[in-house]
Amino acid sequence: MLLALVAGLLPLLTATVLGAPAAVAGEPARAGAVPAAALTEVTDFGTNPSNLRMYLYVPENVTPKPAVVVAVHWCTGSGPDMYNGTEYDTLADRYGFIVLYPSVTRSSKCFDVSSPQALRRGGGSDPVGIKSMIDWTTRTYNADTGRIFATGISSGAMMTNVLLGDYPDVFAAGAAFSGVPFGCFATTDGSEWNSACSGGTIIRTPKEWGDLARGAYPGYTGARPRMQIWHGTQDDALRYPNFGEQIKQWTNVQGVSQTPTTTDTPQPGWTRTRYGGTGDRAPVEAVSLQGVGHNLYAQGMASRVLTFFGLDGSGPAPQPQPGACEVTASVNAWSTGLTASVTLTNTGATAVDGWKLGFTLPAGQTVTGGWGATYTPSSGSVTATNVAYNGTIAPGASVSIGYQASHGGNSGAPAAFTLNGTACAAG
After folding, report:
1. CA distance 213 to 222
2. Is 168 helix (H, G, I), strand (E, B) or coil?
């Protein structure tokens, strides 16, 4: 069963250890810093009860107080495999963050996501070793402790769930590709495999899942990390019901509704739902891939992870405060249909870089087409999202959009609008 996790996954390649000493931009190289622009193993990094190995990638130009991304490999993989099979290193070159690659040494090459020690803060096993790696990195590079992130594939996705449960005060967010909820793989007999969980037959209420995650760090009342969840509908190793169970868990941990605030299709075959917020940094984001199996990770997905983490330089910019946007809307109606023209004006002092205009259609109206934006869903609470050519609105500038709709007698215009979640004045 463990071998099923690696079927079709990325090939093993070896790491290099070449390059010049790394330096934070504008600062001299730090004591203990590893060579730049090359994967390097770090030893003696701290408490390491399960004998993990630590690999680090530091770009040539590290930003001051850099973010750290912990990239966790799949069963039978390794840190170097994760390095070679994903593009986090090249993205680090572009954006200046550091990538940490934990590597398992036990024979299965799977992370411990099942033992009682792994499922509690400071309990031992792999999570403690990974926490030591993070501490070494933050000390050595003066990293930003408010910008520590975890992402993983398969076993690494399960470990991402575990890390966010054990150390909610350490991680700002996580992204799990083909994983299971925190605690789903729990065993007490020393086994690494839980067939009920892998088969998608462990079904719990949101509160039950949330309590499992909260129970890893009893008494903690601080902020909880955001979570991005990816899963293929045809996953035959960690069955698709685990996707919904993770959504239950992390929406409950975040204290947000299980009803999506937005649903869209970023590309054909994908369904993306967001919970507790409409933007790129919603508390929970979930992406379902229709007809895709366990090996769902593909080039380009890491960029979407960085957008969710806010590390790509194009995350949500400072948005207008209440009253810093204005919307006017007019309708031209006939017996069963209408066209609506909408003008959005940025009345604030900063540019809007990427916008979502929210409004509620009057009862009985259904959008049948539109221009200047994409409209989802077609009725009720609608979100109009910018298209490529009009995503930036300079201070004082406007964009005009519109839509066609059918109606059952009420042909009025929406009465209120929000820009990226902030109420706009009516023009």
Report:
1. 14
2. coil
Closest alpha carbon to 183 in 256, 129, 231, 123 = 123
Catalytic residue among 50, 78, 154, 411: 154
DSSP secondary structure, 93-147, as one string: HHH--EEEEEE--STT-----SSTTTTSTT-SHHHHHHHHHHHHHHHHHT--TT-
Q: What is the pTM of this model?
A: 0.71
At 241, is the secondary structure helix, strand, or coil?
helix
Q: How distant, in Å, are the alpha carbons of 202, 342, 347, 381 from that of 329?
A: 49, 4, 16, 16
Distance CA 249, CA 210 (A): 5
Q: Rounded to whole angstroms, how far apart are CA atoms 52 and 408?
A: 64
- Specify the pLDDT at position 350: 80
pLDDT, one tens digit per residue, over 99-158 is 999 999 999 999 999 999 999 999 999 999 999 999 999 999 999 999 999 999 999 999
- How far is 210 from 189, CA to CA, in rounded Å? 24
Asked about 198 being catalytic, the answer comes back as: no
